[in-house]
Amino acid sequence: MSAAHSRHKARRATHADRIGADRANGFRRLLGIQEKRRPRTHRATHRDARNLAHRAQRTRREPPPYQPKPRPKPLVDPPSPPIPLTPLVACSPDTPQDVLWHIAEYAPQLRKWLVANPSATPAMLDYLAQVGGPDVARALQILLESLESCGSQACS
Questions:
Q1: What pLDDT, in 10s, does the model give residues 59-99?
Q2: Inter-residue contact 95 to 84 (CB < 8 Å)
Q3: Which of 40, 79, 97, 133 lies in disulfide reach of 111, CB 3.0 to 4.6 Å?
Q4: Using an 8 Å Cβ cutoff, are 127 and 108 in contact?
């Protein structure tokens, strides 16, 4: 007997059982015999208990007391405002070297004041002599004259 044939026989058997059960129920109905109801199983009562517990959890809770949170600090400090480029900034010995080089490259009107800055490096003075600018040659001449006069005399 093939597998398909045995499946077919099994289907027919369950069909016949169903028809037999329907006939039996029909006869019972005709005779007025009522079926006894099955008692509830343990599984159903257990499920009801779970539902009741779940409903109890869904009751409304009180909100937690309000606690203001401090604002978080920024991860990066904002940049400082730009430095206004003035002759005083160009002459000041406290001005950082990168600012002095910025003035030397991008502010030709302030180059003569860089020559007067005591913290100007020889490389910067050489650069200023090459690129020039308004009154840079005159400022370099005054600086060299003061160095020569200081070299011949004892400068303190």
A1: 667 777 888 888 777 777 766 778 899 999 999 999 999 99
A2: no
A3: 133
A4: no
